[in-house]
From TrEMBL:
InterPro entries per the UniProt record, alphabetical: Cell_Envelope_Assoc (IPR051599), DUF218 (IPR003848), Rossmann-like_a/b/a_fold (IPR014729)
CDD domains in alphabetical order: YdcF-like
Species of origin: Blastococcus brunescens
PANTHER family in the record: DUF218 DOMAIN-CONTAINING PROTEIN, INNER MEMBRANE PROTEIN, PROBABLE PERMEASE
Protein name listed in UniProt: YdcF family protein
Pfam families, alphabetized: DUF218
Domain spans labelled DUF218: 42-188
Length: 207
């Protein structure tokens, strides 16, 4: 066999393997987005998103409302909000989330704001530290459907026994076109994380 033909076959196999990897990852994200795990856990962790002068964005609000439903269902006795402050912001995402939940009827004794984290990976790292301080080991992670698989994986990699219960409301699930864009973005972000162990900045809740 000529070297040229061998190289072409190797290149073709590599391209095929890459396509299969991307496709299978996208399908896994799509499948995971349709799951809803609600085991009894130590805490419900709500990943932050944009807030405006202390008022959660529509994406963030949908997550918080879902967390309230899980809390009222008795999934966990504590809700943890996580997320730092963007440049120029007066409030952190975690703080805005905590106040929304408190105003929504959740006891402040059942709320913990972890006011750090600029992306999903950093958020999971600081949440894991908080879990260690409180002796917690298990969590139900609340985020958008397409973000759930990567968020759950990052939590597990930080030593948290994590399941995900994504919200079914909000802009991230409004149209099929939006869903497709989120799946493509999450596929790239998930593969980057698995390859490098690092996160990537993106749209709110995607980094």
């Amino acid at each position: 066999m000529r070297i040229g033909n061998l190289l072409n076959r190797v290149a073709g196999a590599a391209v095929l393997a890459f396509v299969l990897l991307v496709t299978s990852t996208g399908l896994a994200i799509w499948w995971n987005a349709r799951q809803d795990a609600r085991p009894a856990s130590d805490a419900i962790v709500v990943l932050g998103s944009a807030q405006y002068n202390g008022v959660p964005s529509s994406i963030f609000e949908a997550r918080l409302e879902h967390a309230i439903a899980l809390y009222e269902e008795g999934v966990a006795p504590v809700i943890v909000t996580v997320g730092g402050r963007a440049e120029g912001d007066e409030f952190t995402e975690a703080e805005a989330g905590r106040e929304y939940l408190a105003n929504g009827g959740v006891s402040r004794d059942a709320l913990l704001a972890v006011e750090e984290g600029v992306d999903t990976l950093e958020s999971m790292r600081v949440v894991a530290t908080a879990f260690g301080e409180h002796g917690w080991t298990s969590a139900v992670v609340v985020t958008d459907p397409w973000h759930a698989m990567r968020a759950e994986r990052m939590a597990e990699d930080q030593g948290i026994d994590a399941e995900s219960s994504p919200t079914r409301q909000g802009p991230a699930v409004q149209t099929r076109g939006t869903q497709f864009r989120y799946i493509l973005r999450e596929t790239a972000a998930y593969l980057l994380y698995r390859a490098t162990g690092e996160s990537v900045a993106g749209a709110p809740g995607i980094g």
